[in-house]
Amino acid sequence: MSSLLIDSVESGASVGFITPFFHADAMIYWGGVEADMNSGVRKLILACDGEEILGCVQLSMTDKRNGLHRGEVEKLMVRTSARGKGIAKKLMLKLEALALELDRTLIVLDTRKGDVASTLYINLGYSFAGEIPNFALSSDGEYEATVLFYKEL
Fold first, then answer.
1. Which helix (H) or strand (E) segment is 33 a member of?
2. How far apart are the C-alpha atoms of 124 and 93, rounded to whole Å?
3. Distant-in-sequence, close-in-space partners of 35: CB < 8 Å, separation ≥ 6
4. Closest to 8 (Cα-Cα) out of 77, 83, 90
5. Tens digit of pLDDT for each residue in 63-122?
6. Domain residue limits at 53
7. Are the C-beta atoms of residues 73 and 98 closer than 8 Å to each other?
8. Which domain of life is it from (predicted)?
C-alpha cells in the first residue's frame, strides 16, 4: 500500500501529499486509514494482480445523522505502470456498488482542476458542482484549484 501511495505522490497525483514524501509518511497515513476502517467510517477497495496492488479507492462515510445517506470518494490511485487499463473505472464502479449496499445514495468528491480523473468522473455520470480556487498545494508547491463532483445513485 505504501509503495502505491508513494508512486502516486511522486508522479504528481493530487492525493493530499506533497514531495518529499517518505515511506514513514505513507505508513502513518495508512495507519490512520486502518483506524477509520476499524471504526466503520471508511471502506478501502483494492485492485490487485496476484500479490501486487495496482490501485485503490476509499469510500469515506460520515456518522453525522444528517449525512448518513452520503459518501465521499477519497484517494483514487492507480500505479503509474498500470494506468490506461480501466482500473480506475472498475474501482469507481465497485465503490458505487458498495455505497448502495451501505445505503449511501449520494457520492461526492473533489479533484484537482484539469486532472484526467475529471473526465473519468463525467463519463461515469458525475455532475460538476463547482470550483474552489487555490484549494491545495500541488506536489511542486503551487496552489491549485479543485473541482467538485457529485452523483446520486
1. helix 23-39
2. 8
3. none
4. 77
5. 899 999 999 999 999 999 999 999 999 999 999 999 999 999 999 999 999 998 999 999
6. 2-152
7. no
8. Bacteria
